[in-house]
Amino acid sequence: MKKLILFLIFAAGLIVILIFALTTSLGDLKGVETREVPEVVKDEAFGGVYVKTEGEPTEYCRVIDVGGKSKFLQVRADDQYMIGYLKARAISDEMISYMETVDKEVTDYAGSLLMHRAKKKSRYYWKAIDDRYRDEITGVYHGLLDEGHDVKAADVLFAYTWRELVYVTLAVRIGPIYYKLFYKDKGKETGGCSSFGILNPDGSVIIAQTIDSPPQSKGFGDYYFEEQRINGEDVVTTMSSYAGLFGWDMGWNSKGVSVVINNMFTKEYAKEPRLPYTFRGREALRIADDAYEYVEHWTKTGSPNAQNFMVTDLKGNLLRLERSREEFVITDVKKDGLKGTYWEDIGMLTSTNTFVTDEMKHLILFPDVCTGRQPTADTTAKKYAADGRVTLIEMKEILAYQPEGEITDENAICYRPQHLIEKNNASITVYQLIFAVEDGVRKIYLKENLDCGDKDYVSPVDPLSR
């Protein structure tokens, strides 16, 4: 009995020590250097901020509203520090909202102790990342301070890395249970569905639009696209799921390399510190001339966390990159297809400028399929996502269709997903594709539940074989 009491006292002491260690303030990052910055002007007519200079601004950050819930952030600066600084000065409120939302949602999901542990682990990155990206984080930190926000550099670092850290702590096991038992808004998710324009060969985006379910938290509403040019280097255009622009899910570069990522996680960050994927993806986009070069760069980073990539380019390459146990698996989709894959690949394929052929360079598809969760409110987002999702071949057939002659509403076609007909053995929703030209850009619109008569569309064409 005495031994049992001593053991219980010892165990209680260990628990107290553990709780103390996990809840003790971490303080701020070390080695965050101060830096003098030039005068920055805020200009509503310009749409953002710029470094004061004679003539036209050469260093600036401005927000361009491209419609819907999408915004395009255009950043021009001489170095990575100013990239971060100008972004923070231009969208500081969104960044702070994002950081607050991450803290709340992750804490609700995983609990305070595990949240604290993830924040502690994020400091591995501060020692491991390249100087340029450490400069960017520092620039964001200083920009937020200059906008009057009370933040720590460590909070900014965590905003860049939290998705790689939170889900590989014990939260990955305990979190779902905690979430279901204690989270008040049970069943709610911050979902998103995206629709993207096609990239021009010169690196510009023809048009970009996204659709999203209503955000559960104010920091997760809009989507942002970010365009960077540093010292005349190639444009890197990336897309964040969140308004704070810390994450990175999809991107393009001026060579037409396009990538979309799904299911990112890291298992070995403590053993092998490295760039968080936010920066790794940007770095690969910055230097890659085609899809193969992108994949080669990514696999050489030593990252254990690449699962489910799709990469395309203007040469027509389409690659799937997957992490399987201890090795990367690279599939040439045009050559080998997507054997044994699952529906998320369909979302990824249709969320990048995929199937870039001569026939498709001026096509823009509205709307796109979700890359993750299916939204619950915006019915237009469900056109390709309903009842088991459209199959890969069907999506390719839709994208390959080219009406002859002048593009008018009379060229509309009707399409009934074949796999749904077989599944339901009944008449189902009909999608009418309407082709139009607006401002010289060819677009596809969809309407559903239409009486199409005899205009059913079934195409044998596989654009990947063209």
TrEMBL record:
It comes from Candidatus Zymogenus saltonus. This is Uncharacterized protein. It comes from the Bacteria. InterPro entries: C45_proenzyme-like (IPR047794). NCBIfam families: C45_proenzyme.
